[in-house]
Specification:
Layout (H helix, E strand, L loop, with lengths): L1 E6 L5 H13 L5 E7 L4 E4 L5 H4 L2 H6 L3 E4 L7 E3 L3 E9 L5 H13 L5 E4 L3 E4 L2 E10 L3 E9 L4 H7 L4 H7 L1 H6 L12 H16 L4 E3 L1 H5 L2 H11 L1 H4 L7 E8 L2 E10 L2 E9 L4 H11 L11 H13 L1
Parallel strand pairs: 1-2, 1-11, 3-4
Antiparallel strand pairs: 2-6, 3-5, 6-10, 7-8, 8-9, 9-10, 12-13, 13-14
């Protein structure tokens, strides 16, 4: 098995995401990649989220920030240069989410921080969340990426992100705030010192040295530049969300959903589904079924059933 490490020297979110996408599309057999990167002043939303519902877009961009849509599910997060992002890419046959979490936990243990996995996609320290993850895979390759809050500007996070009323009602504002922590509050830790420790823990976990890949070379690949332009485009980031009006919303065990319809003389001509669900494929399938483009069985697919029942009950 070959190990590769890439450390970005750019703070531009669209380029960093484009490199991540290239790594996913070109994963080699028997190869595991660890990619570390940082973004400047960026709100990152899930593939199926409404940017205007999750973020104060005008304020963010007016202050020089970026709105970026990733290709995985989950909720909105805030990135700045004091927040470290990690990505693990591996063939499906060897991909192991728990090993990825262990690499992060082992690196943090060198600071005396005891990190634990909470649920499927969060990491906590002293009972407070400092990291969230999202996942994506195709027939051959699996991707796991996440954030690590080290000294993130919490005030900026509060200003740019739009609190979800359902979540605040469920947990309470104070409860939500108390469950999040910057690791710099727990130990003398900085992004610059953590990155080499993650690489060391990664190599120790797999029992071999990794090959360092030059980020500058990768950033000049034509396919990466084209993908960067796509991720920066209004079409990808905003789509037609300005044209839709929310028609119904619901909160389920798997996440929150808002279904918006574009109508023409009583017929549905387009549909958008905003959700923080991790399963982006089921959300997209529900959207196609609402538009009448797919009629396959939904047995054993609770996300699709919940969305369809929500739409039908609102008619």
């Amino acid at each position: 098995m070959k190990l590769e490490t890439i450390i970005s020297n750019s703070f531009e979110p669209f380029l960093n995401l484009a490199v991540e996408d290239w790594l996913f599309q070109h994963c080699e057999k028997e190869s595991v990649v660890c990619y570390l990167w940082r973004n400047e002043r960026t709100v990152v939303i899930g593939q199926n989220q409404n940017p205007y519902a999750e973020c104060n877009v005008d304020m963010l961009e007016g202050e020089g920030g970026h709105l970026m849509r990733r290709t995985t599910g989950g909720g909105a997060v805030y990135h700045d240069v004091e927040n470290l992002n990690f990505t693990f890419v591996a063939p499906v046959a060897v991909a192991d989410i728990q090993r990825n979490f262990k690499v992060i936990a082992d690196a943090l243990a060198t600071y005396g921080i005891k990190a634990e996995v909470s649920g499927r996609n969060d990491m906590t320290a002293e009972g407070r969340k400092f990291s969230g993850s999202a996942f994506h895979k195709n027939a051959t390759t699996a991707l796991h990426h996440g954030t690590i809050m080290i000294k993130t500007d919490i005030e900026a996070l509060r200003r740019y992100l739009t609190p979800n009323v359902s979540k605040l009602m469920k947990h309470g504002v104070k409860s939500v705030e108390s469950r999040v922590v910057n690791l710099s509050e727990l130990a003398d830790i900085a992004v610059e010192s953590l990155m080499p420790r993650i690489v060391e823990a990664y190599e120790k976990e797999y029992g071999r040295k990794s090959e360092m890949v030059d980020f500058g070379v990768m950033s000049r690949i034509e396919a990466v530049r084209q993908r960067r332009d796509f991720y920066a485009s209004d079409e990808w980031r905003f789509g037609r969300w300005r044209d839709f009006k929310a028609t119904c919303k619901g909160t389920f065990d798997w996440g929150i959903v808002v279904v918006s319809l574009l109508m023409d003389r009583g017929a549905v001509v387009d549909c958008q589904i905003a959700s923080d669900a991790l399963d982006v494929e089921s959300v997209e399938k529900a959207r196609r079924m609402i538009l009448g483009g797919e009629r396959s069985s939904t047995d054993g697919q609770p996300i699709i059933n919940d969305i369809l029942n929500l739409v039908n009950s609102s008619k």
